[in-house]
Amino acid sequence: MVTSAVVGGLASQLFKKKRGKSFGGSALKLGGAALVAGLAYKAYQNYQAKSGATALPGAEPVRNLAPAQSPDEVPEPHGTAFMPSGEEDDRARLMLSAMIAAAKADGTIDADEENAIFGKIDDMDMASDEKALVMDELRRPKTVDDLALEAKTPEVAMEIYTASVLAIDADHPAERAYLDLLAARLALPADLAREIRQTAGAE
């Protein structure tokens, strides 16, 4: 199973710096998988506050989650519906799948970058089955429909979309088309998808 630490190590190869957006110390404090989950929660919190919308069907109410302490801080997601205890590695693996699928879909990962990722994998303290799984994801990335099937809860759907936004440049038409298709397959309201992109610094 791919661990949260693996996602943190590989995320640096995919995450893009977003214009005018700072996550303060959250990126260092939370790490890769928790940062994605925290951004998804923060966007959901913002979406509900701005729209007055009720919780999405099947989603945990925002009031039960610990809020961020400042506008740029990303809330701690561990132990919440965005990263339930005992599911951290499963969520991390799915986030990694989403990032790789998005980056592959728009050509963000070229041969040189793929080789760099393979090199990072070799440098990390990973079990052979973990390395094999990550390399398999790179060679055979999941489709949008594959990812949608794994979105068992609204929180998981938001995490998949957030990871995808972080992995690609949402300003380009091809990338935006991918994100629009993904949001539709994940059944995310348009306003919520927009809020995720804004929270992640993509708009």
Report on this model:
With 203 residues, this protein is mainly α. It has one domain. The chain is built from ten helices and no strands. Helix 3 packs across helix 4 and helix 5 runs antiparallel to helix 6. The longest helix has 20 residues. The chain is globular, with a radius of gyration of 16 Å.
Please write out the topology.
Elements: H1 4-11, H2 26-30, H3 32-51, H4 88-105, H5 111-123, H6 128-139, H7 144-150, H8 154-167, H9 173-185, H10 190-199
Helix content: 55-70%
Distance between the termini: 33 Å
Shape by Cα distribution: globular
The radius of gyration over CA amounts to: 16 Å
Q: Secondary-structure element order, as H and E? A: HHHHHHHHHH
The proportion of strand residues reads under 5%
Question: Can you describe this structure in just a few lines?
Answer:
This protein is mostly helical and 203 residues long. It has ten helices and no strands.
Q: What distinguishing features does this structure have?
A:
203 residues; mainly alpha; 10 helices
